[in-house]
Amino acid sequence: MEIAAPYLMFLGDVHDQLAAKTATGVVHWRRADCIGQVRFDGCQANLGLPDMTVADGAASGARTLVIGAVNPGGVLPQHWESAVLEALDAGMDVASGLHMRLTDNPVIAGRAAERGRQLFDVRHPRGAFPTGKGEKRPGKRLLTVGTDCSVGKMYTSLAITEEMRQRGWKADFRATGQTGILIAGSGVSVDAVVSDFISGATETLCPANDPDHWDVMEGQGSLFHPSFAGVTIGLIHGSQPDALVMCHEPTRTRMRNVQHPIPPLAKCIDWHVEAATLTNPDCRCIGIAVNTSALDDAASADCLKRIEDEAGLPAVDPVRTGVARLVDALS
């Protein structure tokens, strides 16, 4: 997927800010590419962007209407449909992070075809992928992995990419989930790829490159999570990482939405590195990104020091302390 900017962010009439978390992530990382927001009466989310109609957005140069809100069931409410059709008529493409495919709506799909516009269902990859081959290819790759799902792998990957670019390094963020794709403008939502082809899709996402170029791969799931380990192992083998960053939320005792306990951090690191050596025997873990959002400043500092002392690796909170020390470890 290659999604054209600038974006006009569509929120509809969602009832709280959490329902707009996809849009919030896009605006955080691509503020300059987000020119306005479309909100219906009763909308309780706000991205801090100028309020616009679809016509206003088109006149301001928006190229893609982004449906950055979610609702129960991930469907497109019928009363949102008019805004999508108006955007297509105005010459915009439409991108959606909903579970429901825009292309399955005959009215929307028909209008897009008539107007020669593209529909991007970012949760659903387009086309076919090969199986992974595990063959060595030039370029460098860093993959974020986790002790659990939803621990900050996307944020950490984006922060590392930004830090690399500020240093003048060649670096690209490679998105593997719907929010990351909308932020990057391209990518593959690997959790919707048939399992036999996850590693191949990942290889396609980070192909051979210049020897000094870094692909920073957004991780998904966790090798220890009984629900999502399959997508994690496919990413590990397909990305052929030179470096891993372990992402961790220190206040959790059990994995998200299941009863399995969080394994010891050292075990998580060792098993992820061992899995990675199948396609890159030289892979190493270079640091730990700790999500300390549930802790106050003093407790966060104590937590980072304890983890660093125990692991013998740099431990940072990407939001509170930045990721410079992780990038230092790659030098």
Can you give a write-up of this model?
- The protein is built from eleven helices and eleven strands.
- By secondary structure, it is α/β, with parallel strands linked by helices.
- It folds into two domains: 7-121, 3-Layer(aba) Sandwich (Rossmann fold); 140-328, 3-Layer(aba) Sandwich (Rossmann fold), CATH 3.40.50.300.
- The strands form two sheets. A six-stranded parallel sheet has the order 7-8-6-9-10-11, sandwiched between helices.
- Helix 4 (106-115) links the parallel strand 4 (93-96) and strand 5 (119-121).
- The chain starts with 6 loop residues before the first strand and ends with a helix.
- The mean pLDDT is 95.
- InterPro entries: DgcN-like (IPR011669), DgcN-like_C (IPR035086), DgcN-like_N (IPR035402), P-loop_NTPase (IPR027417).
- Residues 131-327 form the D-glutamate N-acetyltransferase-like C-terminal domain.
- This is DUF1611 domain-containing protein.
- Residues 42-125 form the D-glutamate N-acetyltransferase-like N-terminal domain.
